[in-house]
Design a protein that fits this description.
Order of helices and strands: HHHHHHHEHEHEHEHEHEHEH
Distance between the termini: 20 Å
CATH topology of the largest domain: Rossmann fold
CATH superfamily of the largest domain: Uncharacterised protein PF01937, DUF89, domain 3
Number of strands: 7
Strand order of the largest sheet: 1-7-6-5-2-3-4
Structural class: alpha/beta
Radius of gyration: 18 Å
CATH class of the largest domain: Alpha Beta
Shape: globular
């Protein structure tokens, strides 16, 4: 997915949100936004939004000299999500279709995006799980692919959300799952620390993307990650940043996310606020049909 004009406005908002985690000073916030704005001329409209915005986030961190400004928030959201874990397990186990229920839980967890929202009510998210419907639901295709899948790669997104993802990883049993985390902190994206705090390391093999960028910009990822990606029979990619960086990649990817911005809404053809479980191959086929 290429960067749209409105993405640039969002980049600056993300820089402001990041600065608010480090200071209450209006002067510092103005100064850090000036530094972030210096990155705007380098924005390449042909690249994905995560490739363009991550340097702004790094500029904010550099200004304050803080490696991981979201460290405490990530711990807090992991703890909050773990506090509702048993409730989520009961919901999945009592559902007529446990895989669909677990996928729904994982999708609702995608609201824990501190690059978009300043605060998220985790308990409220749990109460909305059952009432929320899919705008796009390719679960039947996913089930068919899982019958023969030997290697499943799951690309994580945010802290707290990783606990919701754990429900889906557990529902995929007995297939083994490899779960990918970032190699360094970027906003509230998951790292190995979050995998340990959430218990994900108990149910999946943890690998890193090899970079500290939002999403999974393939050219910036490690050879190990790319090998795991290319050998996977099924790839589950959580969140908008993974969608934005991988939506043009021809692979057996299933994107699970909550649409939270107009650019992604336009790209998927559905309204903001919608839940999506979407086959990448279906998306590419639709694009080909439109261009035929």
């Amino acid at each position: 997915m290429k960067t749209a004009p409105e993405c640039i406005v969002c980049f600056m908002k993300q820089a402001l949100l990041a600065s608010q985690h480090m200071t209450d000073s209006t002067e510092d916030k103005v100064n850090v936004l000036k530094r972030a704005a210096e990155c705007i001329p380098a924005v390449d409209a042909e690249k994905s939004p995560p490739e363009n915005v991550t340097p702004l986030i790094k500029a904010v961190r550099s200004y304050f000299g803080v490696d991981d400004p979201y460290r405490e928030e990530k711990q807090r959201y992991n703890d909050l999500a773990l506090s509702v874990y048993d409730t989520l397990v009961a919901y999945v186990q009592n559902s007529p279709d446990t895989l669909e229920a677990a996928a729904r839980v994982a999708a609702m967890g995608n609201i824990m995006d501190l690059g978009i929202f300043a605060h998220v009510d985790v308990v409220e998210a749990v109460t909305q799980v059952q009432a929320t419907t899919w705008a796009i639901n390719h679960l039947d295709q996913l089930k068919q692919d899982l019958v023969f899948a030997q290697r499943i790669l799951y690309l994580g997104d945010n802290a707290g959300e990783i606990v919701f993802d754990r429900l889906l990883v557990e529902a995929l049993s007995p297939q083994s799952v490899t779960f990918a985390v970032k190699s360094g902190p970027v906003i509230n994206d998951v790292t190995r620390t979050d995998a340990r705090q959430s218990g994900m390391d108990q149910v999946a093999t943890i690998i890193e993307t090899g970079c500290d960028y939002l999403g999974a910009p393939f050219d910036l990822c490690s050879l190990e990650f790319r090998a795991a990606f290319e050998s996977a029979d099924v790839i589950i990619a959580k969140g908008m940043a993974n969608f934005e960086t991988l939506s043009d990649v021809d692979a057996n990817i299933y994107f699970i996310l909550k649409v939270k911005c107009p650019a992604v809404a336009r790209e998927t053809g559905i309204a903001e606020g919608s839940l999506v479980l979407m086959s990448q191959r279906e998306l590419l086929a639709q694009r080909a049909a439109k261009n035929a």
